[in-house]
Amino acid sequence: MSTVEERLLPSAEPVRLIDEHGAAHPHTSYQLPSAETLTDGYAQLVKGRRLNDQASALVRQGRLAVYPSSHGQEACQVAATMVIEERDWLFPTYRDTVSIVSRGVDPIETLTLLRGDWHSGYDPHERNVAPQSTPLATQLLHAVGVAHAARLKGEDTVVMALVGDGGTSEGDFHEALNFAAVWQAPVVFFIQNNEYAISVPLAKQTAAPSLAHKGIGYGVPGERADGNDLAGLLAVLGTAVERARAGEGPQLVEAHTYRVQAHTNADDATRYRDDAEVTPWLERDPIKRLDAYLSGAGLLDDARRAAALAEADRVAEYTRVGLMEDVQPDPAELFQHLYTVQTPQLREQAAFLADELAREEA
Amino acid sequence: MTHVKLSMAQALNQALRDAMRADDTVLMFGEDVGALGGVFRVTDGLTAEFGESRCFDTPLAESGIVGTAIGMAMNGMRPVVEMQFDAFGYPAFEQVVSHVAKMRNRTRGKITLPMVIRMPYAGGIGGVEHHCDSSEAYYAHTPGLTVVAPSTVADAYWLMRRAIEFPDPVIFLEPKKLYWAKEEIDLGTPEPGIGKAVVRREGADATLIAYGPTVPVALEAAEAAAAEGRSVGVVDLRSIVPFDDETVCAAVRSTGRAVVVAEASGFASVSSEIVARVTERCFHSLAAPIRRVTGFDIPFPPPHLERHQLPSVDRILDAVDDLQWEDS
Question: Which residues form the Dehydrogenase E1 component domain (chain A) (predicted)?
């Protein structure tokens, strides 16, 4: 018989269905996803990796102001999107570009924020993707609000809310878990624990046995998964989504992964960690691992591999070309979006700027 | 019958009730707003009438209240949340500044947040530490927020109705010391909408500019000034953001003299903004520099010293006397 505490406790080891050598690991509670799901997932991982690397290149070329890459974390990015339906919502952070693009949002619109044209380039209602949040964990409360409103409206929408390991120290993380638990809101809180909050390692972030344990105090079941194993992530996150949809309330999922690159291009990771620490993680790469499994199972051959790469190249090329265009945002927009009805003060300021610009041109 | 005698708290309650009857997406939540009806009883009876899914208590966490209200507004609701006391609102400040105020702008108008953040506001009730603050400048300084404060019972009703119907987020400051002031009001005759100031008293010699809790004090001072032979008008801002330059400047131009009356500390405040705006626009109509009667630049005082902070009739009359009259 399981006690309440047992129900809330994460499993002793992170759930892993395919190990780093590509071997299947049966699990008592979770099933390996279907072959079709995994091959589709593989293609998305390849696309995500290509997008990460393209975006990083665009920073070096001065086309993006900055890019917080999720290189090495693509399994988390792709799984978060694959387990939810069209009617569900995704609440991403600034590092979750790949997840947003996997959801179907145009990559150029997704990167508008980082190019510096506008704060959010996409329409959040089009694919139910909230604007990327830079303040940490604040968006988790919005996610709870969206989920609670959905329940009040009688909809079975589920909300996938993303946060990093650093974000779990913020007050809003705790308030969000507590509110979601009290309201039994259908939210999956998904922590991508990549071991670093800019330069601060996890050991200086928390004394908890794992981040998944943090759900216990709120009555939210916690679970953890190998963050570089797409199969394990899909099983764990998929189960959490199903439970939330069935009215069983929120769940906390921690993915154990690693930020193999620096926080952003503006960060010097050599100041706070050794290459020796990074190298083993490169061996645990999510794409290599799934490739090995699928190849071994006869589900992936050179032709399919090439097709995945070609599609990834196409998306990268589309992104590169789009972001090479010089876009000049209209300065009048500075005043247009604050209020539904513009205030007299903003009308005056808009007229002032328009006049100043006209004189500059003359 | 549309004529009723109500206190401001009852008028706000009636406004919330009527808004909830008119639109079933209107939701009420916060700390103690359910069974208790709010510590000032502004949400009294709403849970009984509309049920726990429309008016409910939350865990004790202000950031959580405002943050979840954002999500609910994103998903088709019109949340009205209570901060219980102005000075309890600071844990929610990040949500207010980083998200409530910016969401529409960040998303180029794709997400609007029709929500109201209600705050029992300012002093005059002998509240202990952290129960009375005049925090309007923080909100007024944040682009994207609309900030209003009623001063009459009728206005409390109508401003609340308008705030709930408003397409964008509104910070609704409820002057605590006016909660129990009763007035006969006509619910059939709407007050002006958000963004409009009103002249509460006509005057020929000087203009008092006030909002929220200082309007009754200003009216009292104007009455006293009349007894001394000076015709002093009173403009009630009602809406701090947007600011009604037109009504305020028209009043000041007609008198050439003005005093701004506010409870908040004067330094870097709404009152200093008003002086700057009016001076820029009405300089040639002014017969004297605009004076201010504000709180001192100190934390809100303990109850036994509170009266020294709040603008009084005497201080206002002294300020009016200081407006460089030719006969003095």
Answer: 49-312
